[in-house]
# Entry
Amino acid sequence: MSSAARVLTVRRPLVRPHEGRLLRVVRGWLVRRALLLGTLLVGLCVARVWLNHQVRRVAYDLSEARTMQLKLEHERGELEIELATLRDPGRIADEARRRLGMTDAARGQVVVLP
# Structure
């Protein structure tokens, strides 16, 4: 081996300077586009999951509201029956006799005014 140190010299550059700059620009552009599209895709997936959750929550609330509506309609029907029973003239007359001690008017007790 020779004692002199060998020096490596490059006669011409391996990549032309303007081509390297163009390659960096294109790579940067592609990376930014890929990140943008990836972010958009993740955002759309999150939006879809959120919308599905909202749809299920609204469907559950609607089911609860329908159940409550049926209960209220049933209670309304029962209250209408009770009201009709309480307004019955025969029941009112019976209660008047039993609770208040009222009797039917005798002949001559009722005076009709002209």
Notes: Residues 17-100 form one domain.
